[in-house]
Design a protein that fits this description.
This protein is an alpha+beta fold and 315 residues long. The protein contains 4 helices and 17 strands. It has one domain: Sandwich (Jelly Rolls), CATH 2.60.120.580.
């Protein structure tokens, strides 16, 4: 099995405005991509035979989490913050220094495809204050190609993404041993990891915004696009509205029907679950509320798959 080691993060196209492919795999071929703690992506991996505009399903086959394990210690209030507690990991549980334990729930915070290298994407690459260059744009803008921060993207799930370049360019980063909904401390339990993936062609779903699929649910990932578009107008409410709108389209396409036919089940059964909330404009208030804009907000809009009549085939 091909393995793309985390050493590549420090050696492959570092400082380049745009990356070459780190390697390639065939459709249906399992491979391992190793990640580091936090958000520097490993990749991009070309998927042979995939063209721009085609949709792929990235199956998460296994997530091995590796030390060190440290709990986040942030949040919206400065009082109570401190050093990151070191954790032990034993028998599936993350053990705090005292009082607490937490059952690990490994998930991949960012499975990305390379964005099309538009003028705006190129500007973001050049303007990155952290000098991550191309690695910035497979992390920061979120949008339709990257950085989901969804706790459900673990082993046994898959994510449907639309390729924006030939070969798709799969990148992986930001694995969590545990992440709560909303990532309210600006981080989860960030870890090094070895992630086993398999990429197939996506079938059965309309893919525009990414879709995360588990055994029981289909989830539409949606974020603001303020960073991507250089704007500040979008708010949390706009992300929720867009997620609702887009899920109606997914349902209508699934039943080969209309928005009018799709709306009743979406109106009745849709769950909106937070992925990232720390970008809310007044989440941290140093001197009271301000006019700060929302930015870097993400949710998933979720439906049970058994709402669809007939025998549902797990695709």
């Amino acid at each position: 099995m091909k393995t793309f080691t985390r050493a590549s993060i420090q050696t492959h196209c570092v400082g380049a405005d745009w990356p070459d492919f780190l390697g390639s795999v065939d459709l249906g071929e399992s491979f391992v991509i190793e990640t580091e703690r936090f958000n520097l992506a490993n990749g991009p991996i070309a998927i042979n035979g995939v063209e721009a505009g085609e949709s792929v399903a990235v199956n998460v086959e296994h997530v091995e989490i590796l030390p060190p394990f440290r709990a986040p210690n942030g949040g919206p209030f400065f009082e109570g913050m401190g050093d990151l507690p070191s954790l032990e990991y034993a028998e599936g549980y993350l053990l705090f220094p005292k009082h607490f334990r937490l059952k690990a729930r490994p998930s991949v915070g960012n499975i990305a495809v390379l964005p099309a290298p538009t003028a705006r994407i190129r500007d973001l690459v050049r303007a990155d204050p952290a000098n991550r260059v191309w690695r910035r744009v497979v992390n920061d803008p979120r949008a339709k190609h990257c950085h989901q921060d969804c706790q459900y993207l673990g082993a046994g799930s898959k994510i449907h993404l639309r390729a924006q370049v030939r070969g798709a360019g799969i990148c992986v980063a930001d694995v969590h041993a545990y992440i709560g909904q909303g990532e309210v401390a600006f981080a989860g339990i960030e870890v090094n990891a070895n992630v086993q993936l398999r990429v197939e062609r996506s079938e059965g779903w309309l893919v525009d915004w990414p879709l995360i699929e588990t055994d029981d649910e289909i989830m539409l990932f949606c974020s603001d696009t303020n960073i991507l578009n250089g704007t500040s107008e979008q708010q949390y409410v706009d992300v929720v509205r867009e997620a609702y709108r887009a899920m109606r389209e997914v349902v209508a396409a699934r039943i080969n029907g209309t928005i009018e036919e799709a709306n009743p089940i979406v109106a009745t059964a849709l769950d909106i679950r937070n992925c990232a909330l720390y970008g809310l404009g007044n989440y941290v208030q140093k001197q009271g509320k301000t006019e700060a804009a929302d930015q870097d907000i993400a949710v998933v809009a979720c439906l049970p798959k058994d709402v669809f009549l007939g025998s549902f085939v797990h695709l």
